[in-house]
Structure formats: C-alpha cells, structure tokens
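User: Could you check the structure of this?
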Amino acid sequence: MSRWSRWRARRASLAGLYDVRSLLMLLATGWAVLFHIAQRPPLWSQVVVVPWALGVVALGGLAKARPERHWYVALVAAVLTLEAWAGWPWAVLATWATRVAGWRLRGKEVAGITAAACLLALAHRADPSVVVVMGAFVLLPGLFAAQSRRTADLIEELRETRRELARLAVVEERNRIARDLHDLVGHSLSVVAVKTELTRRLVAVDPGRAETELADIDAVVRRALAEVRQAVTNYKQPTLAAEISGAVSATRSVDIPCAVTMPDTWDLPVPVEGLLAWTVREGITNVLRHSRARTCSITLTLDERSAGVEIRDDGAAPADPGEPNGSEGPGGSDGPGRSGGGNGLVGLSERAAALGGTITAGERPEGGGFRLHVRVPLT
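Assistant: Sure, the predicted structure tokens are below.
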C-alpha cells in the first residue's frame, strides 16, 4: 500500500470516530477549557484539568470505535469525575459519553448521564436556566447518535437485502437456463442415443435400414442445434442503444455516413426493444453487404401507442421491380434481402408477427434505394 493510500485509510478511520457533529462538541470542550483558565485557578489545576479534557476527547473516539464496555465505563467516569471536581462548565464534556451511549442504542444510559451531569451542575450552584441549557446540549448528541445508528443499521439491512435478491436472481436464472437446456437438448440426445445403438446393430444385417436411421439422427441433431442457437440468441438479446451505436461505427468504417434520428431517452418493454435492435442489426447488415449505398439513415420513432424504427439507404433498389414499395401487414414483408433470398428478414418478420407488429421492406417511396421499417404496438 502506498503512502497516499495509507494516509487516506487513516483519514477515513478518523472520520468514522469523529463525525461532523463532533465539531460542536470540540468547540464546547474548548470553551470549557478557556472558561476554566479565565477563572485563574492554581497552575497545578490547569496542568491537570486540560490534559484530562483532552483525554476525554480521545476516550470519546476510542469508546465509539471499540465495543469493549470498559472503554465506555472509563469515559463516563472521566466525564462525571471531571465535572464533580472542576465545576459545572465541564458538564459539556458529558456529550462525548451520551454520543457513545446513543450510538450503542442505550437510551436509558443517555438519560442517566444527562441527569447526572445536571445534578452535578446544580450541586456546584449553577443557575437553573444554565442547567437546563446544559442538559439539552448534553442530551441531543445522544439522540442524534441513536438516530444515526438506526439509519446506518437500516442501510446495511437494505444492502444485505439487495445482495440476497441479486443472489436469488442469479440462482433463478441458472435454474431457467438448466430447464431450457434440459427441454431443448435432453430429449434430442436421448433420441440420438437410442437410434445410434439401433444403427450399430443394423449396420451388419440391414444396411438400408441403418442408412435411414443415420438420416434420422442427422435430422435430430440439426434440429437440436437450431433450437440451441435460438435459445442462445434469446439469452443474448441486444439493446437498441448498443445496436445503433454499433451501426454508426460499422458504416463509418466503410465510409458510408449514417444519420441517426432518435429521442434522447426511452423506456421500452424488453421484447419490443429487442425486436427494434434486431431490426437495426439486420438493416445495417443489408446496407453493408448488398446496397452499394453512399449514405444511410436510422430513424427511431416513439409515441404512446407504438414504437418503430426505419433504416434507409440510397443504394441499389430491390431486384424485383414488381413490388417497389414492399408490402406491409402483421409480420408482412416483400421478402428477405434485396433479391428475396436469405433468412434475415424472414426471422425478423416472425419476431414482428409474434409481437403484433408490422414490417415493410422494399424500395423507398421516392424511388431507388432500400427501406426497412418495423413498427410494434406498445399496448
């Protein structure tokens, strides 16, 4: 640990012993020292009383930091003994004892120390009004310390609750993934195991039947692989902000300016945001691979009832001139890609249909280029 780190650690430790309220208590202690000196007591009294007061301040921090009761008892004894011997002004030092008692949630002891300090002040013939003020000054640090301790305990309890909720959320997510993997892979692997054993037996006696079983095994494995990929895709659902940022970076890298129009903030349901994010990814992939575009744009529109995103470019128009503007409807599309091939927009159409959304893909209304637009209801 560096010297700077050690100094910061010591400062943090000291701050824990002497909080902001301690400043008033230190000022009160200084006032008592000056008042005592102004009374011109014998020199030996000053030599004894001033270090005694400083010792009370040190014990106040030590008794708060250490849970051992003997430090607390020593502090109370030092405070009350000093007041009994040196006079009523030293009653202000009882604040160090009431603060510790309040921090340890000992309300009766806070009241007892305050009462003892007031009685000693009356025994020294202090004015009753001064005794009342002194009593309030001694009592308040104990009450404030008790409130601070309760607040600190509540904050710690809330932090512990948050940690437990986070742990339970992780456990629940692991259980969900385990269930999904069991449902997706368990059955398929069982079928593969049974068919593999059957094929091994048929190879020598019925090669044709063995070939059929191998084809079935291949189909089962491919289906299981597709299901696992779909599950992983769902686990890794992208965020809209990240996809827009990645799209701008990707187009910039190939010298295609990308203009983005979107609100400053948004709060969308997770499935809706996931669909719009996939739309941005698919649209920009189309721009980069097929469009030969010079510019493109991304527009995110939100209202109370729906959310939509549109990707446009000025590149090559769709290969099929018969439907220049594409088609629009629940999950409808004029076909994936610019020539109707590929599966990207097909999957996007299925996602949109599942959420009751619409998809439009085709030539821009003003002619030329390509337009991909997805809109999803929010209600």
